[in-house]
Specification:
The chain has 152 residues and is an alpha+beta fold. It has three helices and seven strands, in the order βααββββββα. The longest helix has 31 residues, at 120-150.
Amino acid sequence: MEYGSIEREIHVDAPPEVVFEVVSRPEHMREWWPDDARFKPVAGAHGELFWRDEGTGETMTVALTVVEVDPPSRFSFRWCYTEAARGGDALLVTFDLVPTEQGTRVLMTETGFREMGWEIAVLEEQYRDHVSGWDHYIPRLDAYIARLVSTP
């Protein structure tokens, strides 16, 4: 297996402007992905994503840095830094939004796995964890947008 990038593509019945808000603003992001998100959707802004373990009550915090904000077509950020101070290598997540006749094609790409410097066993585990995570969360993105646009 290559372990180079993860890509997920979905079509949503909403215009790119709506989808852009949902993938780039913390108040929307926390509705479909992390339990909480704190950042400004501005290139260069630092922030954090939070997940709570229901069983233990512990919270995992992951630093992020917004890389590109190009409404309504692209939003990207770096996360999962190899060093706590955001100085090390990091994964890059990009949401590309393409208008269609019925809504928006959403292409999520996560890259940088091989560049992280992990041992092969760690690389394989991290890659599998992220594949599993996106397989869980991308359908939630679609469902949240569907609820959002159906609400008067």
